[in-house]
Amino acid sequence: MFNATAAEDLIIRTDALNPSGKRIGGVVTNWTLVSLNHNHQSCMDPSTVTAPIVCSFAGHDGPFGAASVKRLVSSGLINKLGDMRALDMNLAEDAVVNATRGTYARGQVYPGLIVGGVELAELDGHPRMGPTFGAMLASGTKAAHEALKVLASLKNC
């Protein structure tokens, strides 16, 4: 997204493809240092970035790891995370690429959210830190193709 920013929350809107349902409509961002120090400073208003699709791949441990799927769990929009397993590059490579998903008909995590990379390991319980740059690139490529399909379906609404 942007350097030194953190996605603090998701924007959830009515789904154009399913008016009785909801979909991710963007992210709420803030400067990373502000996000890390909310308890120690005065309020700094966040910014919003609206988008028909959010791609989320950051699954490493830490305050911002797997932020999108963790927020879906805390909001009650998905049940639970699968929790990352121990490192195993041989299993992680194919697991992360094959499980990257975006279109709801193919097991989308939540409408408007495409999950791949190491965040997917957190969500589905794949081995951690295993995907090398090749698998991360392949996961991103697959996500881009899924995003184009979702955008095309939204364009027809």
Strands across the major sheet, in which order? 1-2-3
Helix content: 25-40%
The radius of gyration over CA amounts to 16 Å
Q: Give the number of domains.
A: 1
Largest sheet: 3 strands, antiparallel
The tally of beta strands, per DSSP, is: 5
What's the CATH class label?
A: Alpha Beta
CATH superfamily: FAD/NAD(P)-binding domain
CATH domain topology: FAD/NAD(P)-binding domain
How many distinct helices? 5
**In CATH terms, what is the architecture?**
3-Layer(bba) Sandwich
Subunit organisation of the chains: single chain
Q: Report mean pLDDT, rounded to a whole number.
A: 83
What percent strand?
15-25%
- By helix and strand content, what is the structural category? alpha+beta
Q: Please mark out the parts with pLDDT under 50 across 5 or more consecutive residues, or reply none.
A: none
Shape: globular
Organism: Chytriomyces confervae
Protein name: Thiazole biosynthetic enzyme
InterPro entries: FAD/NAD-bd_sf
Description:
This is Thiazole biosynthetic enzyme. It comes from Chytriomyces confervae. InterPro entries: FAD/NAD-bd_sf. The chain is globular and about 45 Å long. The protein has one domain (5-155): FAD/NAD(P)-binding domain (3-Layer(bba) Sandwich). It is of the alpha+beta class. The chain has helices at residues 32-36, 67-74, 89-99, 117-124, 133-155; strands at 5-14, 22-31, 47-50, 54-56, 113-115. Helix content is 35%, strand content 19%. The longest helix has 23 residues, at 133-155. The strands form 2 sheets. A 3-stranded antiparallel sheet has the order 1-2-3. A two-stranded parallel ribbon has the order 4-5.
